[in-house]
Amino acid sequence: MHRNTCPHAPQRGIATVLILLLVGLSLSAAALGTAHYIRSQQQQDIATHAQTQAQMKAWTGAELVRQYLQKLQIDNQLSAFYASGPSTLTLTGDGVTGAILADITAIDATAGTVTARIIGITAPNSPAEARALLEVVYAASASAAPAQPRPAVLTYRRNLRLSGSIRVEKDTDSTTAYEISVMGDISTGGNSIDNVDNLLSTGSISIGSGSSFKLLHANCDVNLSGSVTAINIKARRNVCAIGTAGTGPNGAAMANGSIDTKAEISRNGTLSARANPEDVGSCNVEGFTPLSSSAEAATCANPSVVGVNLSGGSAGADKVETKGNVSIQSGKVNNLQAQGNLTVVSNATISGIVGGTVSKPGWNDKVKVKETKGFTTNPPLVALVKIDPDTFKADDVKPVANYVFTIDSAGFKKVKVQSVDGMADGEYFLGDYDGGGYKDYLCKTVTGTVSAPKCATPVRAESKTICKGQSEYNNCFTYSASTGWKIDGKSMAPGIAWFQGDLEVSNGTYFNTFVATGNIKTSGSHKTYAPNYAGYNGQADGKTYAPQGICSNSDFPALKPQTFCAGANYKPEATGNYALMAGNRTDGNWDDLTGYQGGTITVGASSEIFGDIRAGNEFQSGGNTIIHGYVSALALGVKVINSLGGSTKFDLRDLPKTFSPGGSASQPSGGGTPAGSVQMKWSRYL
Fold it and tell me: Helix (H, G, I), strand (E, B), or coil: what is residue 84?
C-alpha cells in the first residue's frame, strides 16, 4: 500500500501565518501601550504642571499676606488686627483675585504670630483644576517695623537702676526718637534724664524724677511720681501716677489693666483701660516695694477700682474709655465711655455714657452721663515690648583683628599681626631695643626677663613699634597676671586690637576698636575713636571728626590696617563701629552665666568715646563721660554693677557718614532680620 507523504494543500504555510499574526498582535499591543503611556504621561504632565502652578499661586498668596501684615505693622494697626480675631482676606492683584484664597485661622498676640491658610487654584471649574493648600505661620510683632534698627542709646538686658544723670545731645533738625530699652525693670532715684524720648521695659517702669518723655512702654506696670510727663504711657498691666505726673493735655495713657491717677485734667489727655490685664505672669506682685539696693521697680498697688480711678481730689482727664468701672471725686472728664459703673464721690463735672449705673450725690447736677444697658467699648490693646536676647564673645572678632595680644607659656608678651600694610603677617614678641627710646617693638626673638624683654632679632632698622609712649623712654604696654593688660601712652597703631584677658586703656588718644576677653575700663585723660568714626584721615565732607585717621596717621604712617584701608579709599566694616567690646565664653552654653568671662565695661571720669560700646555683661560710667555712639550691655554673666551712675552724655550730633551707631552694619557677627519686620517662621502643605 502506498502512503502519501505530502501534506494537504490547505495546511501549507500555516506556521508562517501564525507567526505573522503573533507579530501583528505584538505590534498592535506595543502601539496601544505606547499610546496609553503617552496619554498617561501627558495627563501626568498636565496634572504636575497644574499642581505646580497652584503651588506657585499659593506661595504668591503667602507673600501677599506677609506684605499685608507688614503694612499693618508699619501703620501701627497690628494691635487692632490682633483684636479682630480670625478672618478671611481678599487678595488683589494681576491674576490673583479668585485664584488665591487666604484665611487667617489663628492669632497669638502674646507670641506675636499669625497663622494663615492659603489656597492656590489653577484652571478652576475645568478637568485640569488643581489646588494647593499651604499653611504659614508669620512672626509679626505689634510694634511698627523700623526702617533701621531701633535708636537705643542704651540697651540693657537686665534690671537697670538709673542713679546718675543721662543726657542725649542731637542735631537740631533731627527727628530721631532716642530710647533706652531694658530687658527687665527700669527704676530711677534722684537722677535726671534729658532728651531721651522713649523708655521701653519688658518689666515695670518706676520713675520719680521730673523728666519728660514721648513714650513709656512696659510689659508690667508704669509707676510715676513727682512731675514726670510722658506724652504716651503704655502698660500691659496697670498705670499709676501720684503728684502731678501725667501725659499732658494732648497725651494718652493706655493699660490692659487699670489706671489710677491723681493729676487733674490739664495733666491728662486720654485714659484708656481694658480692665483685664493680659500676659503678666512674669511681673512682680502688685504693690511690690524693692530693697533700696535693688534695681527692681516698685509696682502699682492692687487697683481699688478695676478700670479707671481718678483718685486725686481734682483728678480728671479729657477722655476716659474703659471696659471696667470709673470713680471720680471733684475733677472733670469731658468725654466718658465706660462699660461698667460710674461712681461720683463729690462735685465732679463729667459727660458721657456708661453701660452700668451712675452713682452720685443728689445735689451734683454737673454729671451728664447717660446709662445705656449693653453699651460696649474697645480700648486699644497695649502690645508686648520685645527686646531680643543677644550674645557676644571676643573670640568671634579675633580672626578679623589686626593685632592680637596674648601671653605665651613663659610669660612674654606676644602680638599676632594680621592684614596690616607695612608689616608681614605673623607672630611677634613685644620688646625693647638697647640704647634707650626704642620701646614696644615687634621682634622675632627676645632675651632678658618677661618684665624687661629685649629684642634680639631682627635688627632695629628692620623692626617697627606699634605704640608711642608718653615719652620715648616710656612703654605703652604692661601686663600683670592679676590685673591684665594696660595701655598708657600717647597712641598706638590704628586698627582692631584684641587682648586676651582684662584691659585698661589709660591716658592717650587712640584710633582703634579695643576688644578684650575679660573686662575693659578706661582711666585718665582718655579718648578712643572707633575706626569708622575716624575714617580715612579724620575728615569727611569738609569737616574734621578726629585729629587723625585710620589710613592716614602721622604717628604710624607705614602701618595701615587692610581691613579698612583700600588705596585712597576708606572701607567701613562692621566691627569698626565699635570703640570698646568685652566678654567671652569658650562654649555655646549661654544659659550658664557663671561660665561667661568678663564682659563688664567701665568708662572712667573724663573719658570720651567716639563709637559704640558693646559689653557682654554690664556697663558703668564713672561720671563726666561723653559717648558719641550707643551702648549695649548684654547681661551674659553674673550680676556685678546692676546700676548706671555718674553723669553720662550721649552726644549724637553731626556724626560722620562712615559711622553707623547701632546700625545693622555694626553687628560684628551674624546678621538676621531687622527687629520688628514680618517674616515667615515656618510653612507646610496640607
Answer: helix
Cα–Cα dist 147/144, whole Å: 9
Question: What span, in angstroms and rounded, lies between the C-alpha atoms of 40 and 32?
Answer: 12
Main-chain phi, psi angles of 545, to 5 degrees: -105, -20
* Rounded distance between C-alpha atoms, residue 472 and residue 553, angstroms: 18
Helix (H) or strand (E) holding 64: helix 14-74
Distance CA 506, CA 604 (A): 9
Strand partners, 615: 582, 633
Other C-beta atoms lying within 10 Å of the C-beta of residue 550: 30
Count of CB atoms situated within 10 Å of the CB of 656: 21
Rounded CA-CA distance 420/565 in Å is 9
Predicted confidence (pLDDT) per residue in 351-366, tens digit? 999 999 999 999 999 9
**pLDDT digits over 264-316, tens only?**
999 999 999 999 998 898 899 999 999 988 899 999 999 999 999 999 999 99
Longest dimension (CA), the chain: 153
Measure CA of the first residue to CA of the last residue in the chain; give whole Å: 89
Q: Among 3-7, 401-405, 500-504, where is mean pLDDT lowest?
A: 3-7
CA distance linking residue 547 with residue 682, whole number of Å: 51
Side chain identity at residue 557, one-letter code:
P
647-651 and 619-621 strand pairing: unpaired
d(CA 189, CA 109): 34
Task: At 298, list the grid cell.
Answer: 516698685
Examine residue 668 and say whether the peptide bond preceding it is cis (omega within 30 degrees of 0): no
Helical (H) or strand (E) element with 318 = strand 317-322
- With CA atoms as reference, report the closest residue to 359 among 334, 376, 377, 338: 338
Assess contact for 391 and 590: CB atoms under 8 A: yes
- Return d(Cα 682, Cα 663) in angstroms, integer: 27
> What is the C-alpha separation between 238 and 280, in angstroms, rounded?
10
Residue reference for cell 487678595: 91
Q: Which residue has the cell 618677661?
A: 450
673 pLDDT band, cuts 50/70/90, is very low
Q: Please, is 431 exposed, middle or buried when counting C-beta atoms within 10 Å of its C-beta (0-12, 13-18, 19+)?
A: buried
DSSP single-letter state for residue 380: P
Q: State phi, psi for 9 to the nearest 5 degrees.
A: -60, -40
Instruction: Reduce the DSSP state of residue 50 to 3 states and report it.
Output: helix
441-443 and 464-465: which strand pairing?
antiparallel
The closest of 622, 413, 405, 421 to 516, measured between CA atoms, is 405
3-state secondary structure of 243: coil
**Rounded distance, CA 504 to CA 581, Å?**
12
Q: What is the CA radius of gyration of the chain?
A: 36
DSSP-derived secondary structure letter, 298:
P
Number of helices and strands in the chain (H, E): 3, 60
Cell of 615: 559689653
The type of residue at 60 is: T
Q: Tell me which residue has cell 497725651.
A: 251
CA atoms within 13 Å, Cβ hemisphere of 61? 33
User: What's the confidence (pLDDT) of residue 75?
Assistant: 60
Q: Residue 227 and residue 222: Cα distance in Å, rounded?
A: 14
- pLDDT, position 278: 82
Which residue in 233, 74, 214 sits closest to 143, CA to CA? Answer: 74
DSSP state of 257: S
Could you please report the per-residue DSSP string of 3-49? ---SPPGGGTTHHHHHHHHHHHHHHHHHHHHHHHHHHHHHHHHHHHH
